[in-house]
């Protein structure tokens, strides 16, 4: 019987995950079909309950439900617990296990960007949503000593910092108000800048002016596109990376969790590129161009 794997989100129509995961199943001869389930918040509990039946191998969860499903699963991995967000569900019989593969996905992207240099210790993170939680958790685990979070709504940044207060007790993790002069002052001390906002996703906008970037800063944008931020950072002489590596590797980690097999990265990457060239634009976590992030 063909097993079912579903992406539960709202909206999901433009997701790149379907192409990437189906290519991986097909390449390795896994008899599974990846389906996109667009479910508004009120229908998520019902969708999660349906996963308990035998037909399902597991699921991905995306915006705006990553935090909502946390209490709906039976068990959480350390990463899902620490971030308070689930993007992948596996099964143990009828029991559901919640994982967060954005964390290992981000780590691969960060490692590639840092390359052979020593892992930096100071970072600036823009954003405080689900993606930013995976970022901050990873930076804490990597041994960063100072991480400053800027978010449009300061209270959300502060809530995220509070969420990590225990694991970040040994270091300086702070939320600061979004003022260009404060961001510039913090960037002058930082080695890494992560954009975990959705600014640049649907319009050619940058969260910060390129002039405040100096060439020694490594810039990682979670958005899977050559955003204005990345273009301006390149112009300023910075090493940069977009969200493609994170997207690919969070998907690869999910694939391995469902199937127990190493993910065929080359095939998944090719499927991602083909889907994007074919007009699909969304990375996981995308609020969607037409609908608000929080329904
Ligand atoms: P959320 O909706 O949880 O968070 C969105 C963030 O963007 C918030 O910090 C929000 O600030 C900020 N934001 C949105 N619009 C504006 C604006 N106009 N001005 C200032 N700030 C704004 O989304 P996610 O965290 O899930 O995703 C964020 C980005 O990361 C998306 O672009 C997504 O594609 C990407 N992503 C990529 C992944 C990958 O695998 N490459 C994985 C996960 C995410 P506020 O709180 O003030 O509203």
List keywords for this structure.
single chain, 295 residues, alpha/beta, 6-stranded parallel sheet, binds NADPH dihydro-nicotinamide-adenine-dinucleotide phosphate
Describe the protein's architecture and organization.
- The model is unreliable at 285-295 (pLDDT under 50).
- The chain is an alpha/beta fold.
- The protein is globular and about 60 Å long.
- Helix 1 (17-28) crosses helix 9 (244-259) and helix 1 packs antiparallel against helix 10 (265-277).
- It is 36% helix and 20% strand.
- Strand 1 (3-9), helix 1 (17-28) and strand 2 (32-38) form a beta-alpha-beta unit.
- The chain has a 6-stranded mixed beta sheet, sandwiched between helices. It has a 6-stranded parallel beta sheet with strand order 9-8-7-10-11-12, sandwiched between helices.
- 47% of the residues are buried.
- The protein has 10 helices and 12 strands.
- NADPH dihydro-nicotinamide-adenine-dinucleotide phosphate binds at residues 63, 102, 105, 127-132, 151-153, 156, 196-199, 201, 222-224, 243, 246-247, 250, 283-287, 293.
């Amino acid at each position: 019987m063909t097993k079912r794997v579903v992406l539960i989100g709202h909206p999901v129509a433009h997701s790149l995950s379907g192409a990437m995961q189906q290519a991986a199943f097909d390449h390795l001869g896994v008899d599974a079909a990846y389906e996109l389930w667009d479910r508004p918040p009120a229908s998520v509990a019902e969708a999660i309950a349906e996963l308990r039946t035998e037909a399902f191998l597991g699921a991905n969860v995306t915006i705006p439900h990553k935090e909502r499903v946390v209490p709906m699963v039976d068990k959480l991995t350390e990463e899902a617990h620490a971030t308070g967000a689930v993007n992948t569900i596996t099964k143990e019989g009828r029991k559901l296990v919640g994982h967060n593969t954005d964390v290992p996905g981000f780590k691969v992207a960060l490692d590639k960007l840092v390359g052979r240099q020593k892992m930096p210790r100071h970072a600036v993170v823009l954003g405080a949503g689900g993606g930013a939680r995976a970022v901050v958790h990873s930076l804490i685990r990597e041994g960063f000593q100072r991480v400053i979070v800027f978010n449009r709504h300061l209270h959300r940044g502060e809530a995220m910092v509070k969420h990590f207060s225990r694991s970040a007790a040994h270091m300086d993790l702070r939320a600061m108000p979004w003022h260009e002069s404060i961001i510039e002052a913090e960037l002058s001390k930082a080695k890494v800048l992560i954009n975990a906002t959705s600014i640049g996703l649907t319009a050619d906008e940058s969260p910060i002016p390129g002039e405040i970037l100096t060439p020694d800063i490594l810039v990682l944008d979670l958005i899977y596109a050559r955003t204005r931020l990345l273009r301006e950072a390149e112009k300023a002489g910075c090493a940069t990376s977009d969200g493609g590596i994170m997207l690919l590797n969070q998907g690869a980690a999910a694939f391995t969790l469902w199937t127990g097999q190493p993910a065929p990265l080359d095939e998944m990457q090719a499927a991602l590129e083909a889907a994007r060239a074919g007009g699909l634009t969304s990375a996981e976590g995308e609020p969607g161009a037409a609908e608000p992030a929080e329904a």
